[in-house]
Write a structure and sequence with these properties.
The chain has 289 residues and is of the alpha/beta class. It has 2 domains: 101 residues, no CATH class; 187 residues, no CATH class. 24% of the residues lie in helices and 24% in strands. The strands form 3 sheets. Strands 3-2-1-4-11-6-12-5 form an 8-stranded mixed β-sheet. Strands 7-8-13 form a 3-stranded antiparallel β-sheet, with no helix packed on it. β9 and β10 form a beta hairpin. The protein is globular. The relative contact order is 0.17.
Length: 289
């Protein structure tokens, strides 16, 4: 379904923003748009919104299943402004999710359970947001896939992830149950990555509420939304498996010619299955079995 603007979508479809989950997919280029949208449709989102330039096309089978909104993602601040606009328009309690094209959400047991089932359990644990790790994917052979994107021969890092304490605004004490996470291609190629873009944690799944604001560093102004778990036990976490960093490094002239391969001794083929991510400790089932 086509819309003339994000305002138009929000005015016409307030009913879709009552419970959700609603997926906001921001399309930055023409790489793997269809596979990204299909993946999130199959994950069980009740509504998928593709915010994308008019110049990009969609296959016929997807056009009827997603809400297409004209959008320019070239400026990162536009993306955050759009998400905050949706938050303000949504009914408090509505589950929202955001990612970019060439990014794929994986959560525990996602092959047999839907994202709605997972969020129902998460809400019953009195959680209003879920930590997601952005796990870098990359093509195994950059000669065959110079843009670093290949679904068939995707690799990820099986180790090299770590966390650091996150200090409060005054910088004099760590925030409770909050950590900054690092690893993957952003860690190994950090000389090409701005410091503000090196973290791999993102609160991609969250409930709208009055006054909630998403910041430009992928954290929220409500500090409990930024926590990885509740005070009494571990909670569910998910992963966004993403070609976005590798793709950007190969597109950037400053890094393109210095990177001949993203593979190293801790690379392993990505199996496109939540079991692999669970085994590597990259997602957490919590009390959900």
């Amino acid at each position: 379904m086509m819309h003339s603007s994000l305002d138009d979508f929000l005015k016409q479809h307030k009913a879709l923003l009552v419970t959700g989950p609603v997926a906001l997919i921001f399309v930055e280029d023409d790489v793997e748009i269809a596979s990204t949208l299909r993946h999130h449709l199959q994950s069980g989102f009740t509504t998928v919104v593709a915010l994308m330039p008019d110049a990009f096309d969609l296959p016929r089978d997807i056009k009827s299943k997603v809400h297409r909104v004209p959008f320019d993602c070239s400026a990162p601040e536009h993306v955050f402004a759009a998400i905050n606009q949706v938050i303000r328009a949504a009914t408090p309690g509505c589950w929202l999710y955001y990612c970019y094209n060439t990014e794929y959400l994986f959560f525990p047991f996602c092959e047999t359970r839907t994202v709605t089932e997972m969020l129902t359990f998460h809400r019953e644990e009195r959680r209003a947001a879920m930590l997601t790790y952005v796990i870098d994917l990359y093509a195994g052979d950059l000669t065959q896939h110079p843009n670093a994107v290949s679904l068939e021969t995707a690799y990820l890092d099986k180790s090299g992830y770590y966390a650091q304490s996150r200090n409060n605004a005054q910088g004099n004490a760590p925030r409770e149950r909050q950590l900054d996470f690092f690893g993957g291609v952003r860690w190994r190629q950090e000389e090409h990555i701005p410091p503000d873009s090196r973290k791999i944690d993102r609160i991609s799944l969250f409930q709208a509420k009055g006054g909630l604001v998403l910041n430009a560093n992928h954290t929220f102004n409500a500090q409990e939304y930024n926590t990885y778990a509740c005070p009494w036990h571990h909670n569910l976490t998910a992963a966004i498996c993403s070609f976005r960093t590798a793709k950007a490094l190969k597109r950037n002239p400053g890094s393109n010619f210095t990177i001949n391969s993203f593979r190293w001794h801790n690379s392993t083929p990505f199996e496109w299955h939540s079991r692999q991510l669970l085994d590597l400790g990259l997602i957490e089932p919590g009390q959900w079995f």
